[in-house]
Amino acid sequence: MKPQLFLLFISLGFVMVSCKSNTGGSEEVLAQVGTEILTKEHARSEIPPNIFRDDSSTAYISFRDDWVRRQIILQEAERLNFSSRRDVQRRLHRLQEEFILQSVQDYIIGEFEDGMEVSDQEARNYYQQNKDKFTLEERYVRYRHLIAESNADAERAKRELMQAVEWETVAKQYSKYSDLKIRESERFWPISIAGGDISMLNRYLMIIGPSEISPTYRSGNEYHFVQLLEERPAGDHPDLDWLIEQIKEWLTLEKRKRAFNTYVKNLYLQAQANNEITIYNVTNESNSVSSDTLTLNQTTNEE
């Protein structure tokens, strides 16, 4: 083979590899409006996961069409020089300030995050000190729900429960989704949602008493029954286990709020010491500058 021909083949090979690399590395484009480009990767990052799971193709199309519409409007706004309008400038400035305030607040709170943990004991103490604030707004029930594949299995499961066979054993033997049903039977549920999507089971739980088992109810190809275990009347106090995580979350938020307010108070006192704050009288009011400053101090202290 002649050297010139060999070099030509090598050159063509490099060109082909380069083309494949560029094509493989480029992002798939869904739309372009003017100089703005929407890639599939960007659309995927913006589409909520639940919408994407339901129908990814429709989700892409819907997001693409909405993006195109937005870009067309934004281009028209640019053509009209809309952002230079005084009222738009004021709103943009206000939005910018709000964004900065929220961002710096999040940053400052993040600096104190290590000291924000709330222990289980703190939550228990809060619950005991404020128990009267926690009451059930409706009746709560704890119950067993068995889903059998046949009426015969449902009846056998009932008999074994009445013979004091362990619920876990019966559920694993006869119930569909046994692990889930075992977990659900360990907690209390508001009577308004007890029984899940099957309204008949909810009616049974309304009328049966503790330890009683409802009639079997067929829904589609499944056979259901419930057994009431415990009930708590409206107005009763819930168990701490129901609330402990929520109480810990509340107390954590309170700690964050106090830490931030203390930080802001120190900023205010520092600015005041540097003579960076001047408080003027309100028009047509008789309060003096010193009294206004005192009011601001009191407000800061209360926070």
Task: Please explain how this structure is put together.
The chain has 12 helices and 6 strands. Strands 4-3-6-5 form a 4-stranded antiparallel beta sheet. Helix 6 crosses helix 11 (240-273) and helix 8 (167-174) runs antiparallel to helix 9 (178-184). By secondary structure, it is of the alpha+beta class. Helices cover 59% and strands 11% of the residues. The model is unreliable at 1-25 and 288-295 (pLDDT under 50). The chain is flat, with a radius of gyration of 33 Å. The termini are far apart. The chain has helices at 3-25, 40-46, 49-54, 56-79, 86-111, 120-129, 151-162, 167-174, 178-184, 199-207, 240-273, 289-302; strands at residues 29-33, 36-39, 140-148, 189-190, 217-219, 222-232.
Q: What percentage of the residues does DSSP assign to strands (E)?
A: 5-15%
Placed side by side, the strands forming the largest sheet appear as: 4-3-6-5
Low-confidence stretches: 1-25, 288-295
- Along the chain, the helix and strand elements come as HEEHHHHHEHHHEHEEHH
- Taking the alpha carbons of the first and last residues, their distance comes to 88 Å
Report the radius of gyration as a whole number of Å: 33 Å
| Helix content bin | 55-70%
Helix-and-strand structural type: alpha+beta
Mean pLDDT: 84
State the helix count.
12
Label the overall shape: flat
Query: Tell me about the biggest sheet?
Result: 4 strands, antiparallel
What is the tally of beta strands?
6
